[in-house]
Amino acid sequence: MKLLQPADLKIDGSNAMPLYMQLANEIQRVIDEGQLRPGDALPSERTLMEMLGISRGTARKAIEQLIEDRILIRNPGSGTYVAPHVRQSLVQLESFSEIAFASGGEAQSELVGYFRRVATEKEQQLLQLEEGKKDIVELTRLRKISGTVVSVQRAVLPSPLLNKINELNESLYRYLEEKGVPVLSATQKFSAVAADKQLAYYLNISERDPILLVTRTGYSHNNIPVEYTQTWCLNEYYDFKIELKMPDK
């Protein structure tokens, strides 16, 4: 991380725009330009005040505006940090680790659930499990970018693909590739849902708060399904992008 210098933030006292708005815009700009990345600490209000010759109230108001806009997050007793922001294309298949890196952050996972069980009827159909081979592995992980939880992901795999949980590295897709069954294509569905009690706990939100559910089935060689995942995303941290074109006439 490059430490911000006074010259990095351009505040003009003769400008009709309020100083706090100028400062908020400048902080947004240095984030967009990559000088500050997800997880990086913002200078304190006092430091900004001394750097730019502004009042502490101006610095505080700019920071509070960016926190309200989910550009920054505040950790009491620690400081103010650049919030993670997941920018995902809908036309390119990417792992969470790749998405986090492209968004300027570091992917991290926390395992909160690991089960071996018999697949439900729906899972049997989606994973095309044969009769007598219906055992699956279910993994539930908190997905983080630079330390901030942005989603909860539950992945279901055919049992033979994961013998021991300690075999799994940070990236499920990288692990599957190393096992010789890379995810080569996938289908996805997006749904607006309300957080249940467990999701609310993991995501630090209120029960019944709206969140985005992304459901994916991933396929390997010969169109064989190897994963069925459900990812519950905090809306404020995710942007999905798709390019649309008019049909040829």
UniProtKB/TrEMBL annotation:
Its keywords, alphabetically, are: DNA-binding, Transcription, Transcription regulation
**Record's SMART domains?**
HTH_GNTR (SM00345), UTRA (SM00866)
Q: Where is the HTH gntR-type domain?
A: 17-85
One annotated GO biological process:
negative regulation of DNA-templated transcription
Q: What Pfam family does this protein match (any one)?
A: UTRA
Superkingdom in the source lineage: Bacteria
Molecular function, one GO term: DNA binding
Q: Name the chain's protein.
A: GntR family transcriptional regulator
Taxonomic lineage of this organism?
A: Bacteria, Pseudomonadati, Pseudomonadota, Gammaproteobacteria, Enterobacterales
